[in-house]
Amino acid sequence: MGRGEAGTKKTISLEAWQQKLDSVQVPKEDMNRLIMNFLVTEGYVEAARMFEKESGTPPGVNLDAITDRMEVRRALQGGDVEAAMERVNDLDPEILESQPKLFFHLQQQRLIELIRGGNVEAALDFAQEALAPLAEENSEFLEELERTVALLAFEDSKSSPVGDLMDVAQRQKTASELNAAILHSQAQEREPRLPLLLKLLLWAQAQLDERAAYPRVQDLATAQLVPPAKTD
């Protein structure tokens, strides 16, 4: 290849990059709507009410309805899966009836909670009666059921190879799946827009990495720009 052909990256200094960023004006109203969207989708009702009062940004939905959705989420995150499922059925019974994967994951979480409570016999009975019939028709469900039942084989299940199922993060994962299903049933967005924009930022940086050396955002929490490495 000759000089100037592909393989030579353009280097953009921190000063030049910052000037470009400063020239981009994002309306405050757009930022406020983005924040409100996050608060509403994630269910931070009181924060949404306060933000509406302070910024004048309408939530776009009935905030009282969010309270019902958050009661479901709190019950699930607290390990009371049965209460969460009953509350969902009160809101809309079709949510669980129309989504077998979600229903299985909720039943799986019930099994995990039985194991967490040391109810070995009840856990085995529940796995056989409630989960095994579902797993017989779905190989993915069967694999997940086998991983869950494997918790019973270890005295310290949290430190076992499948101990991640006992983490609070597992409850959160199931709660988020159920929350998204409720939002979808209410014709609302399943995910807040802010995380999607951050994913888009990371994707854009990955694409640009192939073409240039430039100040990157490496820590999304601080958004601090890291200057490109100096080349000889």
Automatic annotation (TrEMBL):
Q: Where is the CTLH domain?
A: 65-122
Q: So which residues are the signal peptide here?
A: none
- Report which residue ranges the record marks as coiled coil: none
User: What superkingdom does the record give?
Assistant: Eukaryota
Name of the featured protein: CTLH domain-containing protein
